[in-house]
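Batch manifest, entry 17 of 40.
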Amino acid sequence: MKSFLLKIAVFSLLQGLVAAGLLWSYDPSKETNFLAATSAKHWRLAHKAPPRLIITGGSNVPFGLQSDLIEKAVGRTVVNMGLAAGLGLDFMLAEIQPSLRSGDMVLISLEYDQFSGGYDPDVIQQVLVFRPSNVRFLRAKHLRKVILDRGLILAGAMVRRAVISFNPFGAFQDRDRPTAAHGYNTWGDLRAHYGKPPMLSAEAPDRLVPPGREWPSPSAIKTLTRFASHCHDYGVQVAFSFPPQQLARLNNDRRAVDQIASALQSIPHLIVLDSPDEQSYLAELFYDTGYHLNEQGAALRTRRLIEDLVRTPKVPSENDGGNP
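Output type: structure tokens
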């Protein structure tokens, strides 16, 4: 029995040493997947001083804004943290909150189905692979689907990438895709699809939110309320701008859209900059989905957003240098 246990211990030690050696060389910086941009976005968030405008939300945010123009107009350094709706509201807010400082402003733009309070565990799994330190932004709700159900898959994906990292040509399979990580600019905006032919289907508008449930979810409104209140206490403004959509799709789910808008208006310390209809756009201004604007659409949305932001008075910092 002792001999068997000794062999098990030696085998486990060897496996651990091999894994440690591989992970020592783990470098996802050459990944070209759309979600791999999480590393560059966090670098900018960590290295830019306040006062900043930190924008978060789903993929409507990187596809639909021109942050360099916003930065010039509002006099704040812009950090576009938007990535994918599947991250969910809890993760999106958790990954920016530790970096917020007095004098900052947070701008949130969520796709309508994100008001369910849910998330896509596959998306979170990928951003953990591309930036393992993102694990600290997980919350209790992520434990089962992300850690317990996908823990071994995560470890395996990291080991495979550590092996691939020895091959300098192994990580560039998505190089030619306009939504790959190299398509982002310095601010975190996705620009590689500019000038590409539209891919949006001309079919009849589909639903923005699944039917048969309450919109918005009380948990989503509670999360936003808690975040806005916490930021207010530390001199950080929080604003919301609705995502871009076609008017026909808004009308297709008008009751849910209006309920979401009404709920947002009721949140203390949350500045609602616009309305769903003010963020409606013609079909020819979209690229590949009803949330992804093309270059002309992004330019129009940017102009509208700048007009709203310059009209928003700055709140004096209550705790200079504070960290929410």
